[in-house]
Amino acid sequence: MSAPFEERSGVVPCGTPWGRWYQTLEEVFIEVRVPPGTRAKDVRCSLGSRHIALSVRGQELLQGKLFDSTVTDEGTWTLEDRQLIRIVLMKTNRDAGNCWTSLLENEYAADPWNPGFDFSGAEISGNYSKGGPDFSSLEK
């Protein structure tokens, strides 16, 4: 199964019923579609180290325990064009092996063969001193 790839950014967005999410080695980005005309005062967003809650006009859109911890003071959300909420979370663990396999624990999983990153143009040198994720148990 092939995920859509955004060539310019090098990320593979993970689609969800409410929008999409993607990650870099340092950050997690969440994009939530909201009804056109949404105003900031309609939005309630709570960003904790391991928890997220988002509602618009009293309707819960996203809520749960994050896959891994984030830096609470670095989390931000913005409302763009009154129809998209963009949330940016800074990962606590930014090692190359820390690739989130889902946004929330057991929800909104990434493609295990391409979990939000595209390495198709990468040169594998084997010089990473701390190793990396072990994908040998995954089936194609």
Strand-helix topology:
Blueprint lengths: L13 E2 L3 E5 L3 E7 L9 E5 L3 E6 L2 E7 L10 E5 L3 E7 L11 E3 L2 E3 L31
Antiparallel strand pairs: 1-2, 2-3, 3-8, 4-5, 5-6, 7-8, 9-10
Give an overview in words.
- The protein has 140 residues and is mainly beta.
- The protein is built from no helices and 10 strands.
- 0% of the residues lie in helices and 36% in strands.
- The chain has a 5-stranded antiparallel sheet with strand order 1-2-3-8-7, with no helix packed on it. It has a 3-stranded antiparallel sheet with strand order 4-5-6, with no helix packed on it.
- The N and C termini lie close together (10 Å).
- InterPro entries: CS_dom, HSP20-like_chaperone, NudC_fam, p23_NUDCD2.
- This is NudC domain-containing protein 2.
- It comes from Willisornis vidua (Xingu scale-backed antbird).
Summed up:
With 140 residues, the protein is mostly beta strands.
